[in-house]
Amino acid sequence: MELVVKDLSVSELSDDKNVYVEGYASAAVKDLDGDIITEEALEQAAKELTQEPYNKVFLNHKYDDIPIGKIVEAEVRNGKLWVKLMLNKAHPLFETVYKSLKERFLDAFSIGFKILERQGNKITRLKILEISLVGVPANPEAIVEDVYEKMLNKDGGVELTKGVVPSHPWKYGKDDKSSWKKPTLSDFTDKSWDELSTEEKRSIAGHFAWAPENPPKRFTDLKLPHHDPRTHAVVWRGVVAAMAALFGARGGVDIPSSDRRPVYNHLAAHYKEFGREPPEFHMLEELRIKCGGAIPEFIFYKILDGHLDLKSLISADEGMKELEIKVKELEAENQRLREENEQLKAKLAEYEEKEKAELIEKIKNVSKITKTEIDETELKKANVIELKLLYADLADKALSTKQVAEKVKTVLDEPEFIDSPFGKVDVRKYKELRKIVGLE
Description:
- With 440 residues, the protein is an alpha+beta fold.
- The chain folds into 3 domains: 1-161, Serine Protease, Human Cytomegalovirus Protease, Chain A (Alpha-Beta Barrel); 162-314, no CATH class; 352-436, no CATH class.
- Helix content is 38%, strand content 20%.
- The chain contains 13 helices and 15 strands.
- Strands 1, 2, 3, 4, 5, 6, 7, 8 and 9 form a 9-stranded mixed beta sheet that branches.
- Strand 8 (144-152) and strand 9 form a beta hairpin.
- The longest helix is centred in the last third of the chain and has 55 residues, at 316-370.
- The protein starts with 16 loop residues before the first strand and ends with a helix.
- The relative contact order is 0.07.
- Keywords: Coiled coil, Hydrolase, Protease, Viral release from host cell.
- It comes from Archaeoglobus profundus (strain DSM 5631 / JCM 9629 / NBRC 100127 / Av18).
- This is Phage prohead protease, HK97 family.
- One of its GO terms (molecular function) is peptidase activity.
């Protein structure tokens, strides 16, 4: 997972602003020592992490030194111990730490703990004594995810200057086959948004990649959905649609520029879950800017399909010339396909109208034989299949009526019979009947 840092200037950081760091301090996976901390153990530990004195964060496990920060929030998310810490601005290495975070030299977490219970290589109960910022984690999932700034509002409370990437409060599977459609609130629940509990709102928010706050005040505040509303499964086509919208496809998405990287990181992690490598953020961002703020959707998908080389598209003038050529070629191809589609639609409509007219005439003829009242206006509203069914029904009735028998009456004493779709029929009666109903 790639580190995200809002471009702050440490020297301009005022007293009413703080720097916060978010990420995963541990996870229920095998670490470098071969141990696995169970999810249940992490959940129990998370409840104690914000309590004194075990809420302190240090550098490289030097817990006899001044803490570089303190944990303000902690919870288990999808098997990982998520934490949010506030950096200590009074620490003599504050500026060094901040720059190290920004330059990705310091981009991981490590925990110091005491084992209380274990079963084989599984740690089922532990006491976390401290968390440290480190360069190399013992747990491969213990990665710093986001660094950002908060400021105090007029009332002294904390006011967030950025949105959030909602976490997944549930376990989820993967779906790489289903089509994708943007969900509505009714796809999640029969309740109105105001009727939902905070927990229910957070659960719904977990299906999206961005919100101004969590839980949001309105369902419509949620952006970039990519999880199935019923099963929670992450849907591949939903992930691609969200990534495309992030870089301008279909009108783009209205989120703060500082939130674009965290959202990208979230979606990129899903790419890797499907075994796919996402295009690099800085390259997509550069191409988006060169394209006037939005990568054309078909260009974006051509890049994802590997049909266009992203590097060549952003390489100075040559790349832009290639992009312009490709855009023109694809636009011409799209226009040609649209025109062919319109022509086919027109031919199909013409054919259907002709077939309908013929069927209506046949129905009118056979209705005279069966003495069935027919509303021609209603017939014109029916489609071809409905007309064929009606015609077949009337033709069947016509064969059993006395009127047909009278019209096809012959003077021959010994009629000649043949097999027909209507059973054994006198050949002369059969020919006459076909003529009457318009088949000959």
